[in-house]
Structure prediction request, 552 residues.
Amino acid sequence: MVRSIRDFPSHATAATRVIAFSAFVRILGEMQSEPPYESTETYDVVVIGGALSGAATATVLIRKNPGIRILIIEKSEKLSRRVGEATVEISGYFMCRVLGMSQYLNENHLVKQGLRFWFKNDEVKSLGEASELGAKYLSRIPSFQLDRAAFDEEVLRRAGIAGAEILRPATVSKIELMPGGVQSMEVKHGDLKRTVRARWIVDASGLAAVIARNEGWWRSNTEHPTAAAWSRWKGVKDWDSRELAEKFPAWSRAVYGLRNTATNHIIGDGWWSWWIPLKGGDVSVGVVWDQRLVDFPKDGGTIGERVKNFLMEHPVGREMIVDAEYSEEDQHWRKNLAYYSTTFAGDGFVLVGDAAAFMDPFYSPGMDWISFTSFSAADLITKQRNAQLTDETLVKYNRDFSTCHRRWFESLYKDKYEYMGEFDLMSLAFRLDLGLYYWGVVEVPFNMGEEALTAPPFSPPSGRIFSGLMSTYNRRFAQIARRRRRVGELGKTNRNNRCLIPGFLLNRGNMLNLFSFLAEWALLELKEGWRTWGDGKESMNSQAIPSEARMG
Prediction:
């Protein structure tokens, strides 16, 4: 055994022996610094990421495939709070009907009362004068306001009880994909490293998007350069408080349901903020803006201070947050939010949740996206295990989710920040968006069952019709707002107006309401829209917007 330089062969020169021994010492040091290896282990499925998308996928897989061996690898010892706290109707269905968590949700989180929006112009001086868009009554279909740290931990715990093995805290590296074969990766857990192999890898790594980035599939959506800053707060006023009711009595009487447990949105030109109450009294408050329209302060204090100072410029924000304090340990900033993967699945891997794509937090679509991708991923793996997976199945899967993502973005988000600060345009867009969501998306699983979650929204063949209609009015409203901005006419309906919606039914006969919304659109075109008919399909990507024309 080599213990010193004298142990090297005597026929070597002194210089050679010094070089050789130095190399030996370096290699020995590297070997000792590397964590020792355990034996290689093999599973049917390895899930990278233990938050909602990963744990939910594992849960559905176990239900569909009794006896399946699943390993969930989670990097954190304890999951932390994250954005995506507000759910909507599809994710409500998924959590309650598919994951079976209704009792837990009712006991530990808040029932959400829809979406509500607040507008202003230079004449609005108080909460009572701000134009309001939202529900008149309580919501009919369940959705929730979640503390994601607590909720995701519960989903992960239940996946473990169902039979998944959970390894945490652990990290993954050196992922090697072998389509049609066995996938492999290196896993570090504590002081040990091991090679793990599996027939399938589910990438539920969230923003890390490890497979998409490793394989070169990750793309930033440069058509939608949004950014966000957020924190959790204490001391935000209760929208349903006696204090506000006495201060603004007519405002208080206008709504019969609850405002406080809705996701409230305070909106300006090119930006919006979310106000999400959480069980226990904290409120998640964040600002999202289009970087082409808004210059959010890059200095002037901490992120929380800048968020508060920004919102204090809005009369509604000022009323609600004036006495509130943010958590210094819970301040966040992120730019260029939107991205996607060009590939969603192959024979041996599948991407779910934020590891596959992220569009925008407006309308809270993130957990709907998780619902469709997680359930569909479990269905795809089940097909392979039942010898039903074909090349055509994979082609269709990638086509459907790629088409879904693109049409979803173009129908709801492309250039929406141009007009979301306009009460009249946003009120009409919201009723159209929400009605088509209810009648084209929500109604399907509630009436046909959970297998409807394998057909993502806007996917072929019928998705083209809905997408065509929605992207057309979305584009037209953006063009109208663009002209208003150009001629200094933004925000004229943003004071002392209310659009209070009685609600929608999961009944396709209720779709007749769509015709009244379309009639409003037609009248808007005849009254004002005709002035922009010659503008073509111009968007913010092709038009500079002068800063002096923007409304505060």
Summary: The first strand starts at residue 41 and ends at 48.
